[in-house]
Design brief:
alpha+beta, Jelly Rolls, globular
Length: 162
């Protein structure tokens, strides 16, 4: 019986110390009734970008844990015009993304601590493993279908809310 209690305590300690830049409690804190994406099963949240052309809302999959962020949009073959994936950076950091096993071109919208766009890596090349950096400390990264940021007129300095 002691061995079982020790094993359980060790498992809890290891889980609490797992590495990553993401807050793993963010996904578990989501309400049970929250909509989930049919492919990733991640929670879907509205992300509104206010650009010169006006405000536009993206239905973003929330990649909150380290594991969810590592997978991201890998192997996906399609992303609707009003879909995306949001990667909160907890704590904010000098984010670098790559396109490892990513089949479709993506726009990477790096978002600063003030929730304003830092920079955009437009039409990132599928399968390219060259790191793509934020132009400063990022609190989140929003991935959109390649070319979508330009279509919406998203530019550095635009406000992003979620």
């Amino acid at each position: 019986m002691r061995l079982n209690h020790f094993a359980i305590a060790a498992m809890i300690a290891l889980t609490a110390c797992s590495p990553g830049h993401a807050d793993s409690s963010a996904a578990s804190a989501a309400p049970a009734e929250q909509r989930r994406h049919p492919i990733s099963n991640l929670p879907v949240i509205p992300v509104t970008v206010t650009a010169a052309k006006g405000a536009h809302t993206i239905e973003a999959e929330l990649a909150a844990t380290f594991e969810e962020q590592q997978k991201g949009l890998m192997f996906r073959t399609y992303l609707d015009a009003d879909e995306g994936m949001l990667f909160p950076r907890t704590p904010p950091d000098q984010a670098r993304f790559w396109m490892h096993n990513t089949v479709i071109p993506l726009d990477l919208v790096f978002i600063g601590r003030d929730r304003r766009v830092l920079n955009i890596a437009a039409n990132a090349v599928p399968y390219d493993e060259t790191p793509i950096p934020a132009a400063g400390i990022a609190s989140a990264v929003l991935e959109l279908r390649g070319g979508r940021a330009a279509e919406l007129g998203i530019a550095p300095g635009d406000k992003v809310d979620w």
